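Task: complex structure prediction.
Instruction: return structure tokens for all chains below.
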Amino acid sequence: MKKLVMLGVLVLTLVANGAMAQETLRLLTWKGYAPAKLVKDFEAKTGIDVKITYSNNEEMIAKLRATRGAGFDLAQPSQDRISFVQEKFPVYQPIDYSRVNTGQLVTSMVDAVKRNTAVDGKGFGVPHCYGTTGMIVNQKLAPGADDWSDLWNPEYAGKISYRLKRPLLIATAFGMGEDPFALYDDIDAYRALMKRVEKTLIDGKKYVKNYWTSGDTQVAIIQSGDANVISGWDGKGWTLHKENPDIDFIAPKSGALGWIDTFAIPAKSKNLDAAYKWINFMLEPENAAYFTNQEGYGTASSGAIAFLNDEIKANFSRSFPPADLDNIKWHPPVPAGFEKIEAKVLDKIKAAK
Amino acid sequence: MMKKPRGTFYLLITPVLLWLLALLVIPHLDMLYRSFRFETDDGLWVFSLNNYLAFFEDQIYWLTFVKTALYSIGVTILAFVVTFPVAFFLTKVVAKKYSSFMTLLLLIPIWIGELVTVYGWMILLRDNGVINSFLINIGLIETPIVMLFTSFSMTVGLLYISMLFMIVPMMSALDSMDDSLIEAASDLGASKWTIFRQIIIPYTTPGIVSGGIIVFMLVIGDYVAPNILGGKSSLWFTEQIYNKFLASFNWSEGAAFGFLLLLLSSSIVWVALKLSGQKLDKVGS
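Output:
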């Protein structure tokens, strides 16, 4: 028995040593946000081992909430989903902007993110990349689809797909000619609007092929021809366009929804140095440009434009004529309690016939 | 001499007990506690039954549960219908040396993992997938049959992942049955249907019931197949629990719904045991 215990202790120490030997950065991010080449470069340059966990906004909040901000050294939530979470469950710590190389970033974007993620006057986010949610359309099979309202247009019956999450409710409201962001300070009016949105989407449900649930299923459903008119992210639409010129990203007439994804540091981050190093590394012009060339999303790095492919620049001017560019609706911070209203609406739509 | 095995016994049992305590008992107690906590509009946390009442007050919740439960019962019955001939074939018809190999083949889907098999079914069933392409190529149909993202594809997925758990207990029940019972009944002039109904079924009931319980519990608690294969109208109760935790950040209500799922599905199993006249300890063996 003694031998067994000794053996156990020995094994445990070995395992613990193995894990401690190298400095690590535990990164909680989205698929595609940590390209393999950049991870390798970063590891070679700093000797820090990067451990990546893929997630989305909802799961990031749930994961960090469960551990009260432990388990990860750096996370990448969208800027509109930080302040209300931070107010309720303090899972992040304020950013020390003096440690971020803000000189290489677009100043207006840094300021906007700082303001939108602020709690008690302290900013909690550094912008990483931005993009829009709009529509991805197979223009050969569904010509003319160019607005959110086409997501419940009988003309495309059986070939429509979208992700049943909060951005869709916002998009539907815009497609109905309303402005949901203007109601962010009036919860009762917002609740009433969501009721109308619910009715529109339930009435239009019979035209929907299926709801996509992730970046991968989003691409698969239009690539396979199961759907021709879907909601989608610009980067994904442009990647699809490269393979099949019939498919492209379209900024809806009533306004594409703009999002900015950030770097935010969990409250119990164990390796702040590595976190700041990663932030600065990812936003170096060449690295940021590599990410954008790869994924198609815009970057907060101001110098990156010199390293972008022509194709990436072409995407942007093709999908965003000046009028549509001006019409992008940037997500303001979500007020507390709104997601509860939306979650119920989403449940009702999913359960409806 | 008596003391030594005792020491070893405690040494061996401690990890199991710690495991159960840390990973099962404590989290469940925490969940139970959470399920009674309710946040008032003023942001105060009070002790309340509101989380449980929410389930009964809002039609969407209990209706989803009823739908999920009925569907799960249906899948369980289907699983029996589909797998009984297979179990009978493997234990009574095929020679012993082949049957163990064939049983091994049945295990293969379990090795692969649920998510991957579910994606496999997507490739088979989609509009321009394997099955539709084949049917169009041989000229049987002209336009693809819509199979994916329907109740059909969801049922297929649920059956596929749960079938094995029906077959194994039935096979062990059938295995222990003496073939001479069937022969005797046959000699006495019983028809095949009578033999099936009066000899085979009563003998294998414990196996059927224990298989049924496992399949029912697996299906009602499944998340992957309804979510991926079920399409736009397949709101499964587990998905609502997931949404409570992840979309509306309402962990208390999510915890209450989790316990309701446990309680309600257990009571359905209890009723099924009563109706079939089985005892849990007999079925469990």
